[in-house]
Amino acid sequence: MKCFFTYLFPVLMILNCSLFSQNPLEKSFHQLQQKVATTQFHLPWVSLGPVVNSARVEALQIDPHNPGTFYVAFGSGNLWKSIDHGISWKPVFENKPSHGIGDIALAPSDSRVIYLGTGESLRKQRNFTLPGNGIYRSDDGGNTWDHRGLSENWHVGEIAVHPQDPDIVFVAAMGKFWSESDKQGIYKSINGGKDWKKVLYVDEKTRANDIVISHTNPDIIYATMWENNIDTILPESVYGPNSGIYRSEDGGEHWIRRSAGLPSGSRTGRIGVAVSFQDPDIAYALVDNLNKERSNAAEVYRTEDAGISWLRTHPDDLTFSSTIGWYFSDIYVNPRNDQEIYALGVRIAHSEDGGKTFRILDGAVQHINPSPAQTLHLDHCEMWISEQNPNQIAVGNDGGFYLSYNGGDHWMHYNNIPAGEFYTITVEKKRPHRIFGGTQDDATVFGPAEEAKAIGLPDKWQYLWIDAWSGGDGCITQLDPDDPDIIYFSMQEGFVMRKDQKSGTAVPIKPLADSLESIDLRYNFVSPYFVSPHQGQTLYHAGNYIFKSQDRGDNWKRISPDLSVSASNAKRSLAASAFVESPLKAGQLFAGTDHGAFWFSPDDGMTWQERSEGLADGYVRSICPSKFNPNRVYLTMTGLDYDDLNAYAYRSEDQGAHWQPITSGLPDQPVNVIIEDRYFKNFIYAGTHRGVFISRNGGEIWELLGSDFPYVPVADLAINEQDELIVATHGRGIYKIDLSSIYFMFNASENRSSNDPFLFPILDFPAGKLRTSHRDVDQASVQNQNFSFYLPKKNEVGLQIKDDKMEVIWEKKIEGKKGINVFRFDQVLENKNALEPYVLQSKVYIRPGQYKLWLTVGSFKLERAFTVHE
Q1: Under 8 Å CB-to-CB from 424, ≥6 apart: which residues?
Q2: How far is the C-alpha of 18 from the C-alpha of 296, rounded, in Å?
Q3: How confident is the model at residue 750 (pLDDT cuts 50, 70, 90)?
Q4: Which domains does the chain have, with CATH numbers?
């Protein structure tokens, strides 16, 4: 029997954007700004890319009035804009409390007006689903932004702008993901976001997901609500009886639930909605109907009577969302033909007969940067369809931004934006000192620690592996210390492969339970494993049990009890989340779990001791046993998956028996990783939710390292053999910073005064190579170089390069800051603007020879010699 429920929702409350309490992201952002203003380490962060793998696109728009203007919003990598059809890009939402984006909307009547919703709409526990701090508005195409409130709505599902009035805007606010909140619901503003009215609300467990305004009658609006049970694990927390569709006929002031014909069971999941551009009474809904088998839960419904009744359009089950319909559930209709629809899931389901039949939309793919990926990436989050030419469609998925001009038969993949969402990195100790990194659904890549090049130059990064669907989750990479051809890499939930680079073959080596044991093996999404630093053929692997192999993973032995069972009920966990071995003593093992339990084994797993007292109940992200002190260990954890945005970092001087918090002076934001320095025993580096910090006394005092780092999460840190700190971000790829000036400054053997300016030694460097054909400089071979100096106070600085004849061949004036400064020299001595027809290039580069750099500040004149070699 079909039931018909009608609810009338009046206006609930009016909110001025200034009345919301401060979001914790805003508090920590202000703390970070103070650190930026006071740091003495003004070292530049250098982007290494990569771009070949791209990243997950959460939202996108193309300006209908300026069709070469693209906006692409990455889930954790900020909003990027192109004004030249995607040839070049720049981030246009920098230095804000959150770079996690939920949606972007251009006002149809004035595309210069943009609304941006911060906080991802992907509800997934992976320690990097970024919350936001509400809504921002730009009136100049993204050049400047104003915060327009809704700070306590941590995640935004959708934004809809009135077709004629850019000041009337609706937001489907999702609230918090992992705790109850009364801030979610549908909000309306009639003054561009200065004030908000909550016009639709169900309860603390039901969040707003989607909203769409009729193009022919803007008073008619459809919205969807999505109930979540926050007390259960993710697959069982994505449905509820309050999930449903609502319609308003008075511009969003009142709402009626329209449920007749739709799934009405207790396992109704996420719903997307689209309305015909010709008839506001015709609408489509994509429902994740978990009242049935998960693998065919996706269902499309259509109404022709304003939602009074809905009918499933297709007789056959649809499987294009697999079992993860909660990840997507967006549906779109052709602006000129409401019989043509697109439903987004793992694949794109396309129908040209009103949903009666579907086909998978795939098509041939061309990449901006060459890539082995052969297919359209999976997991589609967003679509845009041109109103003028509906054959022009764009999609955003876990592989990035794709654009087609022929209805999806052919696609261009814009993999030219450095927005990689990395989980971990590993740095090669031997030459060529490559960096290996696993990414969110974009496989595992490796490349050099070289600065990313300009447009037109190839990306030097490559895939270590990639799956047949052009992606796959890359997690942890380990290098065999004895055989450079052996590399280990992992995917989600502990699935490890051993690859022989010479033969190209890879074999799975994930440990399995002994057939005689009745144990339940469980793994976190990113499950730790490693090659022992003491024996190159020994591997350890951690789920809720620890396994050891002494033959590169061919055979495994279980060496622990179930580490998910803590003495504290609050610390009962799924599995290990961090696991390492002491670099000083073989077999001394440390493990942490996803709810804050810490375990120690002094004897290679023969015995285990829980040492969790004094630790919070968060997800242990990193453990760093000291390479200088056998009793010292550092630990970090995050509460991001529990809506806890506080900082948790600890130090123990007795192998975890007692813990001391070391977050004083850090912004109150998640701390993802701590590592020790290579040389200084009390120097440590912390990678946080925004930025990298350095402590010179074991965590007692922290200072911001560098002042131009993008405000995205730092996922992992490593120091290479060239004394460069390599930083993997979740949202902006990989960066590096040169530590040599810090080492020189704090080396006790250096006798110098901190009251005087100082010019640091300059490493010799190679000149750009000349190409054999025309003897012009190969721009891909030119590496920027650091000129580093110290100032006791802010001052103007003059820099000059003199040749061996003491003639000035280059000079520059810059504003220096108090502390260590670095100028990045691009090796260009002069830019020529010649009119001759056969001048090969306009840049004159420095050539091999002996030179001196002169620094002038006030009455001080300092010099350093350096050599440019072939």
Answers
A1: 437, 438, 475, 476, 477, 526, 715, 716, 728
A2: 45
A3: low
A4: 613-746 (2.130.10.10), 758-869 (2.60.40.2550)
